[in-house]
C-alpha cells in the first residue's frame, strides 16, 4: 500500500509595524496551522521577501518608511511571488478601498475588535477555496467610514501624484542606502520595474567607480542629525547625470535620504556647442580684423604688380611670372574682403569627419 506524504502547511508572512497586531494575526493563523513568519515593518518584510516566497502575505497598509502598498506592488509584479496571495489588513480599509483595489490584493480586511476581525480573517481564508475572483474581496463587518481618515488618505495620494509627475528621478533610501521608493521618472531612468528596484542597494545600480563616490556622498550626509546635502556628477549609458543627496531627519534622528537625479546630457551638449560657437566667433572676429589690416599692403602690392606687368611687355617669361603674382594677390584680396564680410559662420565637410568654415557662404548676406 502506497503511503501518501503529509501535505506541507501553507506558509504565511505577517507584516505590521505594530507588534500587537502581528501577535493577534499570528494567533488567528496558527489556529489554521499556517507556518508563520513575522516582519515588524516594511523594510524587514522586503529583506525577507528578497530571499523567501510565501503562500500568503498579510500586510498592514500604513507603515513608516515602506508602506504596504509598495510591498503589495513588489509581490504582485515580481515573478518570484506569482503564486502569493496578498491580504491587506488595515485600519483604513473602507476609507482607502479604492486605492487598495488598484493594488490588486486577493482581499482587504478591516482592522476591528478581536472577535470581529477574527471572523473576517477566517471568512477571507475560506474564500481561498472558492472560484478565483477578478475583483478584490472586502471584509469590513462592524467598521464604519471615518471622514478624517479619508482626508488623510486624500492628502497622501495628492503628494504621491506630485512625486509621480516630476520629470526628475526621485529615490528614497533607508539609512543603509537601500531603495525604498522610486517615482515613475526613476524607473524610466534605470529602465527597471518598481519591484526590481525596491529593496536594492542604490549604489549597486551604477558602475563600481561611481558606486564608490555615491557611497562616499551618502556617508557624508548620514553621520549628522542636521540637514545636509551632497552633489555628484556620474555617467550612465552615455548619459550625464547630476545627483543631489539630502538626508531625512525626523525628531533629531536620521531615518534615510532622498536622491534627486537630473539628466543633464542635453544641457551639457548645449553648453559644449555654445562654447564651440564662442570660440569660432572669436576666431572669425580675429580673422576679420586681420583681413582689414592686410587690405592696405595688398593694395600696394597689387598696384606694383600692375606696373610690373606693363614694364614686362614684350618679355614673355617675365610677363608670365608677373601675371602669376598679380593673379594670386588678386585672389588673396578677394579672400580678405570675404573675411571682412563674415557675420556668422557656416561649415562644410573637409573629409575624415572633419568640418571647416565655409568662407564663401559665411560672407554672403544672411549666410545663405
Give the termini distance in whole angstroms. 97 Å
Mean pLDDT across the residues is 81
Enumerate the strands of the largest sheet in spatial order, edge to edge or round the barrel.
2-1-3-4-5-6
Individual helix count = 12
Secondary structure layout:
Elements (H helix, E strand, L loop, with lengths): L10 E5 L3 H13 L3 E5 L2 H8 L6 E4 L8 H10 L7 E6 L6 H6 L4 E4 L3 H13 L10 E3 L7 H19 L3 E5 L5 E4 L1 H7 L3 H4 L10 H14 L7 E8 L2 E12 L2 E11 L1 H47 L4 H25 L6 E5 L2 E4 L1 H4 L6
Parallel strand pairs: 1-2, 1-3, 3-4, 4-5, 5-6
Antiparallel strand pairs: 7-8, 7-11, 9-10, 10-11, 12-13
Helix pairs in contact: 10-11
Characteristic terms for this protein:
five-stranded antiparallel beta sheet, alpha/beta, 12 helices, Beta-Lactamase, 46% helix, 368 residues, six-stranded parallel beta sheet, disordered N terminus, Helix Hairpins, Rossmann fold, 3 domains, 13 strands
